[in-house]
Amino acid sequence: MYLSTAYNCYHPDTEIFTDRGWIPISKITTDSHVAALFDVGDPENRLRSGGPPTEEIVARMVQPSAVVSYPYSGQLYGLDASHSAYLVTPNHRIWRKGNSKACREWYCRDAQSVHGTNQRFMIAANFDREVEDPPTFELPEAHNARSGKAMDHVCSFPFNSWVKFMAFYLADGNVQHSNKVSHTIVITRKIPEKFISDTLDEMGLPFTRVNDQYIIGPNKPLSRYLRSFGKAFNKFVPREILQASTQVMRLFLDTIWKCDGDRNGGPNYYTISPRLRDDIERLLILTGHAVTLRQRDRRKEKRFCEGRPINSKYVLHEAHKLGYATVGTSKNWNTAYFKEFFHGNVYCPSVPGLGVVLTRFRGKTIWNGNSLLELND
C-alpha cells in the first residue's frame, strides 16, 4: 500500500491546474489529469548535483498516483508576493532555486527553510504537447427539433482564419436579429482595418464597413453558431481552440490581445466574462506564460487603453517572461512571507516526474511540490 513519507500539504483554498482548467485541490482525485513537471535532461552531464535547469524542464498532464488528505491543526507557512503565493504545512516541499546568477538548478526545500529567505519561484513552464490542427473548421450542423433534418448547409473555413475571426468576435462582436435585421454579425474595429478585412476575405465572408463597424451577412449558419457563445457577460473560447496546438493558441491570444489587451501598461487583458477570463488564462498557461488574476473596482479604478475607457471587471496580467518570480529582497521579504494558524483538512496530490504541480492561490500561479509517496513492502 502507499504511505506518505511526510505530511506536506496545501491549504484547501489552493487550486490545481488540470486539463479542464483550475480545480479546487479538495476535488482532485486519481482520475484527474493535472499539470506536472518532468526532467528531460541528462543528470549525468550536469556540472553540479541537484535538480535540472529551466531549459531541461517540461510540463505534462498526468494522473496522480494518490491524493493525500488529513486533518491538520497548527501553523501554516505562506507567501503572498506580486506574482507568487502559497499556503502550506511547515514541511511542505517548495519548488525553488537560489536568487543568484550562479544558481541554475531547481529543487525542493521545506517551507520552514525557505521562509523569509531570498528565493526564485517558478511561475511558468513550457508544456510538452503534440497536436495536429485540422486544415479547416466546419460549423456544426443545426437540426430541426421536430423533423431532425439539417437546417443549414455545411460551412467551412480555413482553420487559422476562423481562429482569428473568433478572437475578433469574442472581443468585440455580436449577432443582430430582429424584424429589420436578421442573422447579421457586427464586429467593432479596435485593430488595424487590413487585419480584419484580410481575415474576412480568407474566410470568404462578404462584409460592408459602416464607420468603425464591420457588418457581415446576413449569414444564418454562422450567426446561429455565434449565438451559442452568449453575450458579453458569458462569452467563452471554443473547445477546438482550447485543444489546439500551441501555435494556434498563440495566434488566438495575439489576436484577442490586440482587441481587448493592453501591452503598454501591463501587459494586461480585460474582460467582463468570468468564463472567458478562465479560458484566456488557461491558454496563457499552456503556451508557457505566467499569469496573475485580479478583479477591478470599476468605480474607483478608471483605466484607458488607446483613448478608450476600460470597463471590464477582470484583469489577467501576463507576468514577465523569465519564468520565475524573485522574492526575499530587502524591500519585500518581511511582508511577502507570513504564517497563519489553521484548523481543518489539508490536501495534496502525488504525481510522477519531479513531484511538482501547478497551483493557484489568491489569484497567483506557482509550480510547487507535492506529497511524495513510496510503496511500503
From TrEMBL:
Report what the protein is called: DOD-type homing endonuclease domain-containing protein
- All copies of the DOD-type homing endonuclease domain together span 165-289
Taxonomic superkingdom: Bacteria
Source species of the chain? Oceanipulchritudo coccoides
Mind telling me which InterPro entries this protein's record contains? Hint_dom_sf, Homing_endonucl, Intein_endonuc_central
GO molecular function term, any single one: endonuclease activity
